[in-house]
Amino acid sequence: MVENAVIRYGQVWEDADVLLEALDVGPGDVCLSIASAGDNALALLTRGPARVVAVDVNAAQLACLELRVAAFRELAYPELLELLGSRESTRRGALYARCRPSLSPHARALWDARPDAIEHGIASSGRFERYLALFREAVLPLVHESAASLLQPRTATERAQFYAERWNSWRWRLLFRIFFSRPVMATLGRDRRFFRQVTGGVAARLLERTRHGLTSVDPSTNPYVRWILTGKHDGGLPCAFRQEHYETIRANLHRLSWHHCSLERLLETTGRAAFDRFNLSDVFEYVSLERYHGMLELILRAGRPGARLVYWNMLVPRRRPEAMADRLAALDALASRLHARDRVFFYSALRVEELR
Questions:
Q1: pLDDT above 70 coverage of the chain, percent
Q2: pLDDT tens, 96-141?
Q3: 151 and 259 assigned to the same domain
Q4: Do the Cβ atoms of 259 and 53 come closer than 8 Å?
Q5: Cα torsion at 271, 259, 77, 124 (round to 10°)?
Q6: Do 116 and 212 fall into the same domain?
Q7: Could you read off the pLDDT of 176-214 as tens digits, one per residue?
Q8: Taking the CA atoms of the chain, what radius of gyration do you get in angstroms?
Q9: Which of 38, 97, 109, 258 is the most exposed place for a label (fewest CB within 10 A)?
Q10: pLDDT at 10 > cutoff 80
């Protein structure tokens, strides 16, 4: 039942600006996107594609997308940010009530059963966001008196110096390694199944990526870091929720559709040469190498010549096999350049590949 489904992600933890540049979406393109909470499927609409087809095996994630679509249709821009939780609000229940008639019965049932999630902002409704909130509220105060010091504007040199001298204490390293260890993450943050393909340690890799994200990339304007440290997007917003994109997305909502099924099922039923662009999130992290290769074969069949796919690696290395090099080109230089400024810092690699 949708009512009992788990919202794993209340917002999308992949940098939409990096995604849009990597995909190079143009007018007339047909895009396939993993839905997740819907943010990046909506961001694709800012580029004027002919269609965006969102897919997710988890019906609760599609309910997150549905509520965002309803909010764009029914709410003014400041009200949208309030419902998300990006801005403070005392009227989220009333804002939801205005969106509710536009929802499908399944999505309505899911959100009706979660009044607390509405009151706290729908972007904080996921299991992963609750995990980050626990880090913010229970762990960070044991390390530093205020996270606000980390969000002060600084040059790259000043950020590196601040991190080395004031932030990277033994207590920070110890508590980080405990809280973001595999057992704790599997219990509180991500589904235990998501670690089946992971080998080796987890926390040390994430700690190094966090150092990169707090020094090489400016945290003062990073909406993802701001949410982790403050629970809001103050000081910056993900692509889909910036004011300059509000009317464009609203006008293009009729180009967006969504489907409750696996990626493989959708690819098997859409036929050949159906898509120009693929936003694949980090779905290959959770499947075996053999299944990953099988999914690439389906993408090759469903993609048009020149189609581009983008996906992330976090803890499991995945990249196009050499056996597919004659059909699928790896755009490694572009991927490396974009990954260096990816504001969602915990991914180990970005993959950009193109059908020959």
A1: 98
A2: 999 999 999 999 999 999 999 999 999 999 999 999 999 999 999 9
A3: no
A4: yes
A5: -130
A6: no
A7: 999 999 888 888 767 767 677 777 778 999 999 999 999
A8: 20
A9: 97
A10: yes
Residues 121 and 161 in one domain: no
To which H or E segment does residue 303 belong?
strand 303-313
Q: DSSP assignment, residue 345?
A: T
Q: Please state, in angstroms and rounded to a whole number, the distance separating the CA atoms of residues 338 and 320.
A: 18
* Residue type for position 80: L
Q: Which amino acid is at 232?
A: K
Phi and psi (nearest 5°) for 140?
Answer: -55, -40
| CATH number for the domain harbouring residue 271 | 3.40.50.150
Contact 37, 61 (CB under 8 A): yes
140 and 120 inside one domain: no
**Burial annotation 37-73 (CB, 10 A radius, 16+ → b, else e):** bbbbbbbbbbbebebbbbbbbbbbbbbbbbbbbbbbe
Same domain, 195 and 254: no
In the Cβ-directed half-sphere of 227, how many Cα atoms lie within 13 Å?
Answer: 25
In contact, 150 and 229? CB cutoff 8 Å:
yes
SS3 of 97, please?
A: helix
pLDDT for 3 beyond 60: no
> Which amino acid belongs to residue 167?
W
Element (H, E) at 258: strand 256-260
Tally of domains in the chain: 2
Residue-number span of the structural domain to which 170 is assigned? 134-230
H helices present in the chain, as ranges: 16-23, 39-44, 59-74, 77-84, 92-99, 105-112, 115-120, 127-134, 140-143, 156-162, 170-179, 182-184, 203-215, 223-230, 243-252, 263-270, 289-302, 332-339
Question: Cα(137)–Cα(147) distance, rounded to whole angstroms?
Answer: 11
Residues listed for the chain = 356
Are 28 and 72 in a shared domain?
Answer: yes
198 with 298, same domain: the answer is: no
